[in-house]
Amino acid sequence: MTLYLLRHGDAIEIGYDDAERPLSQVGEQQASVVGKFLRASRISLDRIISSPLVRAKQTADLIHDELGTKVCSTSEYLVPGADQRQLIAHIHQLSEASVLLVGHEPQLRTFLSTLVTGTPHAEFALRKGTLASVDIGSPIVPGTGTLRWLLTNDQMRASLRR
Hints:
Elements: E1 2-7, H1 25-40, E2 47-50, H2 54-67, E3 71-74, H3 84-92, E4 98-103, H4 107-117, E5 131-135, E6 146-151, H5 153-161
């Protein structure tokens, strides 16, 4: 299975409760870049799962619109503070070969670390709009994932210009 982990795009900081913060114009552009990068790279997704928080859901929806992915849903297991074991159990129930998870920091960073190193303590930089690709067997066993690549939004944007 290939898991893609994406930190949501930039969000408006003031005037909203945290769960309701929408993407800023920059965040919408970041999500668009990810969708275009995935399309240009011929990466097809069987499913997109996002946190139900507005900024993550908007990020996922923009990518879904770009790619036409069959399934786009939300999961409480991607909200800040969720238990990684529940997310792993949820992913185990899926039969898809490629899944994009759209979430938040520090959960995505620690989940990526757990997948690749078996411990949540490795330091990966997941700025807003950063996308990682991890190959991992099913069932998921922490520490057995292979990090294929990790790209910032600027790196994806640059690759689209070539």
